[in-house]
């Protein structure tokens, strides 16, 4: 299926696997790439050395194009950009809008820049700065999310910018892909659907929690880091929502200490990362620390398998997913469903 996205990044199918922290590692990214879609490596939870190793590992596993997701506000963002350029990575994606200078540096080196946004004005801004394409996530999407549904946000963005738009939030099958194309998108991006594959390294016990979830078990809360965050409802989430300020601060400090040790960040860097998220928002100091060490909460579930202690970011589609195909099986199935749906609609003429 030829679209502006497939032509831009050189993949066979207009499908993107998003850069999920602790989930989108070399195995999942290379499996996605080998299936003909665009796999994106999550680097925010990696040290520089680990990112360098991960890029090399993906290159050993596939010859297909892949991407790396970056935090534009990270203290070492410039070093990570240079790793991407030196590693010959095809795509740089961003959870927060990169600066015009960062976009220019990447584009000058031949790297395709695809920021993720949750509002039309943000898409207009990064398009004006030179972004090559944009991923727009509606409120159905997992992790940090907005309030506007994909079906309302997507056509707004498509009409507002002249670069390829990739739709995210609520996609899991071929019908959704065709619907996104009908809105004018150049493809779809999926996180939860790729998390729930046999190529994902997420522990089986955690996958089982996702598969058992209904759409009512996926909630949006501000209790974790002060920002709207879509995830599975668990006892931990409920406890954080009930916690007083003192208990939340103690919890935040303990988690922050663990993440600092794991990531190699200094306390100063950890607080700076939290303050970057606090900018323009009214967050308490416990929320600042929680914002900085949310990766540790995610790691507890996605790596350690501790569904009782970790956060499980999730799109609403978790409530309608009931299997664990390989990435190759998933992509092949989505493309066949899209073709069948297209043929069925054509027959209505």
Walkthrough of the structure:
By secondary structure, the protein is an alpha/beta fold. The chain has two domains: 4-202 and 321-344, TIM Barrel (Alpha-Beta Barrel), CATH 3.20.20; 214-302, no CATH class. The chain contains 15 helices and eleven strands. The strands form two sheets. The protein has an eight-stranded parallel barrel with strand order 1-2-3-4-5-6-8-9, surrounded by seven helices. Strands 7-11-10 form a three-stranded antiparallel β-sheet, with no helix packed on it. Helix 2 (26-34) packs parallel to helix 3 (48-61). It is globular. The mean pLDDT is 90.
The CATH topology of the largest domain turns out to be TIM Barrel
* Radius of gyration, whole Å: 19 Å
Strand sequence of the main sheet, in spatial order? 1-2-3-4-5-6-8-9
| Elements, N to C (H/E) | HEHEHEHEHEHEEHEHEHHEEHHHHH
CATH-derived architecture of the largest domain:
Alpha-Beta Barrel
Please count the helical segments. Answer: 15
Class computed from helices, strands and strand pairing: alpha/beta
Could you report the average pLDDT, rounded to the nearest whole number? 90
CATH superfamily of the largest domain: Aldolase class I
- Please write the CATH class name of the largest domain: Alpha Beta
Shape: globular
Give the end-to-end Cα distance, rounded to a whole number of Å: 22 Å
Helix content: 40-55%
Q: Count up the domains.
A: 2
Strand content: 5-15%
How many strands, which pairing sense, and closed or not: the largest β-sheet?
A: 8 strands, parallel, barrel
